[in-house]
## 1
Amino acid sequence: MTRSLRGKVAVLGVGETTYYKRGGAPEAEGKLALQAIIAACEDAGISPKSVDGFASFSNDQNDPSRLAAALGIKDLRFANMQWGGGGGGGSGAVGNAAAAIATGMAECVVVFRALAQGQFGRFGQGPRRNAIFGDMAFTAPYGLMSPAQMFAMRVTRFMHDHGVDTAALRAISLASYHHAQNNPRAVMHGRPLDEEKYDASRWIVEPFRLYDCCQENDGAAAMVLVPAERAKETNHRPTYLLSAVSGSHYRAGASAHNTPDYATSCFKTVAPRLYEMAGVKPADVDVLQSYENFTGGVLMSMVEHGFCEPDACNEFFVKENLIAPTGKLPTNTSGGNLAECYMHGLGLNIEAVRQIRGDSTNQVPDADVALVGSGPMVTPVSSSIFGSEATL
Amino acid sequence: MSYLHAGLPKPMPRPDGLDSAYWEAAAQDVLKVQRCNACRGWQWGPEWICHRCLSDDVGFEAVAPTGRIYSYERVWHPVHPALQEQGPYLVALVELPQCDGIRMVGNLLGNPRQAVRIGAAAHAVFEHHADDDPAFTLVQWQLD
C-alpha cells in the first residue's frame, strides 16, 4: 500500500487579518493570531470551538494551548511546530496538520502564522550583542548577518554558473507587484512597480535591489483543514491537499556556508517527492505560489521544481510568462511576500487555495492544480500541491 | 586596521570548546580547520564528529591559508548601527581545494567597489583585535 496524503484532507476555510507594514498593526500579535483563526473558521462555516489542533512553523510564539484557552476549545488533540527558521515550514506545517488528520490524531486542524515585526525583532536587522559565539561567530563579525546577506552569495553563484541576467530577477518582482494592484489585501496595492522604478532602486546586497526583497509586515493568517469527506460542507469549490513534503539535501545545514551543493534553493530532493505524492507533473501545474524571501530564491525554486531548465532562465523569466491570467505559469498571484504581505509565506498557501476555489483577485481560468514552494534556501524547505475535485 | 567599522558583534570561542583551536590558532596567524584523525577527511564548520566516518576523534590541523573565490557579495544596506557610515563592503566565500573544498567566510580586502571574479586566487590576512574585550582575530582574504 502506498502511504500518501493525496486527497485525504480538504481545506475548508482560509482567513487573514488586515495586512500591515511593519509596526502598523493596531493590535498585539496574539490578538492578530486569534482574529485570523476566527476569520478562517468563519470562512469554513465552523465554530472555532470545534478546532482540535494547531500547526505552525518558524517558532511562532503563539502557543497552541493559550490559543485553545482563549478560543474556549474543549478538546485540544494536536499541537505541532515544524522545526526550522524562515518560511521553510509553511507547507511543512500544512503537511503536519494533514498527517494528523489522515491518521486520526485530530479532526479539524488550524495552520496559522502570526507575525508582528513591529512588536518583536525584525528579521532584516543584525544582532545587537557585543559578542557572539557558535555558527554566527563565523559570519556576523564580517557583516554577514541578515537573510539577504545570507542568501546573496548562493544566488550569485547560481547566476554565475548558468549565465542568468538580473533582468530575470526583475521579472519576478514585476509579476508580484503587477498582481498586487488587483488585490485589495496587498500592502503594495496602489503602489505599482515598473522596470524604470526597479532599475533605479537601491542595492540592498548585490544581486538584490530593494524590490528583490520581501517586506517586513504585521498580521496573521490561518487555514482550516478537515478530512476530505467534509470538503463539501461549505459553499466554496472543494479544495484538496494532493501533496505536502519537506526536507533538504545532503548536509544542507552545514555551518559557515559549507553545504556541498551551495547554489540551490534546497528543493532538489524535495520536489521529486512532492510530485510523486501528488501524482502530477510540472506541466500539470496551473498556477504557482513561490516564496519570495528574495527573487533569486524564486528563480532557483522554479528551476528545481522543473518549470525551467537552469540554462534557460533568461528566456523563461520575463513578466509576460509569470502573470495571470495569460502567462505560461502565473506566479505569486496575490502579490506574494514582495507585494501582498510577508506572513512568512502562509499567504501563499492561502492564495493557492483561492485559485482552486476560483476566488483569487488574479484568477487563472480553470485552475485545478496549484503548487506552493515554501522558504527557498533555508533548511528544511517544504512544498505543497492543492487540487480541485477533478484531480482526485 | 580593521576592514569594517568597530561595533559589530565580536566572535568568541564556544563555551563548550568545539572551535577553541581555530580561534587560538588565528590569534597566532595560523589557519586551522577540522580534520578527522580516523579517515583523514577535512571538515568545516566545526562538528563534534566526522560527518563521513562518524568518528569522534576529530582534531584541528594547520592548512595553507590560500584558496579561491567560490562566491561573494557586495553589501550596501546597513543592517547594524556600526555599519551606518561604512558604505559598501565585500564578503567573500573562499574555497580551499587543498582541504576537500571546505569554505571560509571573510571580507575581501581592498577597494570595496572592485570587480570580483569567481575562481580568483586569494590568501588569508589575519586581522587582530588584541585590545578589544573580548580580544579576537578575524580571518580576512585578499586577492593574490
## 2
Amino acid sequence: MDPPKGKRLIVDFAVILIPVLLVLTAAALIWLHNLVAVVMLLGFYSLLMAGLWVILDAVDVAFTEAAVGAGITTVLMLAAVGLTGQGERPGQGNVLVALVVVAVTGGALFYALSDLPPFGAADAPAHTHVASRYLGQSMTEAGIPNVVTAVLASYRGYDTLGEVTVIFAAGISVLALFSRRHGDRKN
Amino acid sequence: MHEFAVLRVATKQLLPFIWLFALYVQTHGDYGPGGGFQAGVIFASGFILYGLVYGVGKARRIVQYRVLIILVALGALIFSGVGVWALFAGGNFLEYAVFADDPAAGNHLGIFIIELGVGITVAAVMTAIFFAFTGRSH
C-alpha cells in the first residue's frame, strides 16, 4: 500500500534535505577547530543519519544510531575533550598527500557507485541470497516477529557474540588504562 | 551543584522513565525495534545523566566499581554460556532450537537470554567508560 500523499511529500523533501545537511555538517566539521563544537556537530551528524535510516525503513539501525551515535558517544567524547582540552592542535602532516589519498579513494568509490544495482531493486544480490529465507521463515524458525532481531540474535548470533566481545574488550581496555585512578579513589 | 534546582528535580523525575524505557526496549526487541544493544545504552544513559547532574562521585557510590567490572564480564559470559549450553543440550554452538521441544520456542528463549547478556555488557561498559573519563578531570 502506498503511503498517503502528505507523508510521501515529507519523505521526498527529507530525502533531499538530509543529505544536503549531512554534507554541510561534514564541511563545518572540517573548518571548525573547537573540539566541543566538533563533538556537538558529530552528534548532529548522527541524528541526521538516524533520520535517514528511518526514511529507509531501517528503524533498528536508526534506533542504534540515535542512542549510540547521537547520544552516548557525544557524552563520552565530551568527557574525553574535558580530559584533553578544547583546542585542536594545528596539523603537521603533509596536506598534499592527504588530499591525493582522499581524492583517489573518493574517486574509486564514486566509480564503484555506477556498478551498484538501482535503489530498492528486487533482484539486487543482497535480496536474492539468504534474505528471502530470513523474511519467509524467521517467524516459524525463530518464533519472533522482528526479523532484524531474529537475524542478529539467532541466524547471525555468532557475529553478535563477536560484537559483544569487542565491546567487552574495549571496556576492559579503558578500565585497565584508567584503573590507577580507581585505586586512589577507593574508600 | 545546588544552583541547578530545575535540572536536579527534572532528572529525578526522568530517571525512572529512562530505566523503564530501557527495560521495555530490552524485552520488546523481539516484537519491535530495539534489543539488548540499544537497551544497554539507554540504561547507561540514566546513570550518566545522574552523574552529570548530581556529580560523578555520587553516581559512583550507587554503581560500585567492583560490581560494574563484574557486570562487564557477566554479559559476555551469559552470551557465550548460552552457546556452550546449546552444545551440552546436543546442538551446535548457539543453536537455541535445542532448548525446548518446539524449535521456535527454544529460539525465542535463546534470543531473550543472549539479548540480556548484550544489554548487561553494553550498559556496564558505557557506564564504566563514562566514569573512567570523568574521574580524571577533577
